[in-house]
Design brief:
Length: 148
């Protein structure tokens, strides 16, 4: 079996969960009054689920290693908060498909730049015509989802 297959399936399923998260949080927003409140509830439920999973897996953090991390290693949750608030706010205005397509386009554009420079200690993957064409096709998809 191809060793890339399982991670690829897991990431595809996670992407599907992201698509489900946007309308779920948009619906929650109507009950709790704002996209920020919806994100707060969403993160509280996610935090509880992760806490239970960590206890089940008996995952113990390496506190010494954590203390030595650079500042940017601690702000991933902020990016997630922006994503969840934007999705909850955007879905009622733009629809699920356009919101998710725009988010994927933004992820790909930033991902291409981060890959090119090997940002945050990740391996560098230089920008080339094929990678740019892939992002351009997604942007064309955004236009098609918006127009049709």
């Amino acid at each position: 079996m191809n060793p890339m297959l399982l991670p690829m399936i897991a990431v595809i399923l996670a992407g599907g969960a992201t698509a489900l998260q946007a309308p779920t949080n948009a619906r929650l927003m109507t009950a709790v009054g704002s996209p920020v409140n919806a994100a707060f509830v969403s993160f509280a439920v996610g935090t509880a689920a992760l806490g239970i999973l960590a206890m089940f897996l008996q995952a113990r953090p390496d506190i010494a290693a954590a203390r030595n991390l650079p500042w940017y290693a601690w702000v991933g949750g902020l990016y997630g908060a922006v994503f969840v608030v934007a999705a909850a706010w955007g879905v009622p205005r733009l629809g699920v498909a356009l919101t998710i397509t725009l988010m994927v386009a933004g992820q790909l554009l930033i991902g291409l730049i981060l890959d090119h420079f090997g940002a945050f200690g990740m391996p560098a993957h230089p920008i080339n015509w094929g990678r740019m064409a892939g992002v351009a096709l997604v942007i064309c998809g955004v236009v098609m989802v918006r127009k049709f």
